[in-house]
Please model this.
Amino acid sequence: MRKPTKAVLTGAAVAALLVPCTVNAVANSGRGRPHQDTSATTLGALGKRAGLRIGTAVDTSALAEDASYRARAASEFTSVTPENVMKWDAVEGQRGRYDWSEADKLVDFARANGQLVRGHTLLWHNQLPGWLTTADLGADELRAVLRKHITDEARHFKGRIWQWDVVNEAFDDDGTLRDSIWLRKLGPGYIADAFRWAHEADPKAKLFINDYNIEGVNAKSTALLELVTRLREQHVPIDGVGIQGHLAVQYNAPHDIAANMKRFDDLGLETAITEADVRIPMPSDSTGQEAQAEGYDVLLRGCLLTRRCTDFTVWGFSDTYSWVPSTFEGEGAATSSTRTTGPSPPTGRSWTT
Ligand code: 9MR
Model:
């Protein structure tokens, strides 16, 4: 018997779009006609049948240098997220001097391949430029700087961004707001302000708040639910909640994800799985790989079962370029495929062969 490989297992997880129980879930969620048509050859095509964009984070250096990576990024996915090049330190390394070149290239790549772009991210505590973190600006100036950043960036990409992660990772795991430069200096109102400014600059983009460890029902997802409930009551222009989906096989998969996502869906909000990956203690073995497949499967099912879940984005599709090994010592193999170099797969079926 053929030994299961990581690609096969993960292919199986993503191909949950096709397995009967998930097809029933698709039917029950009103996502269109379930069928066993196996003619679809790319993840994007599979997702389309369930009314779902299947996206990936894109490492733009890999995109420029690795032809196989580029071919797969172009063919497998129907949306892309810049992994780093739209972050504040990337676009405004020096105060007042913007460099949109890398981000523009990715937006052009997406357009050339008929893909939508998830903008990531306008406001975060991380990857801020040094001039901002070291300046110790007063509250008024910091607020003006933030407003200008959000306005300038959203305006630059106006009409070319499908969904913006306006606010990223605003909460701690215990459900309190993260002690960031933004909260400390501007108070909790910075979140509503960010959404209002982004909406003014690009009224048609869908505006998301995005976070990790909010897959299941827990203190953090409940606090986020309470926040977005308040924001909606105050008519703050927020459209959706991004659930990152960074999982690790050592922890239980979030089997209550659909129940959690329903809470946001019931508010009329869109949802998305925005950064799925499932890391494994290295060296990975078949047990780890099976648990990984389960992790991907749980995330995907959560999305399929949620009426307004619009997209399922993986945080890269190549372990070669994954953020995981340099962040979690001894862990890796988190993406859906290990093979990125060598000849391009003939039909774009690289996840199932
Ligand atoms: O994948 C990104 C990695 O290349 C960067 O070094 C890192 C810096 O913090 O950010 C990574 O992306 C993060 C994303 O922007 C927000 N959610 C968590 C992701 C993984 O850290």
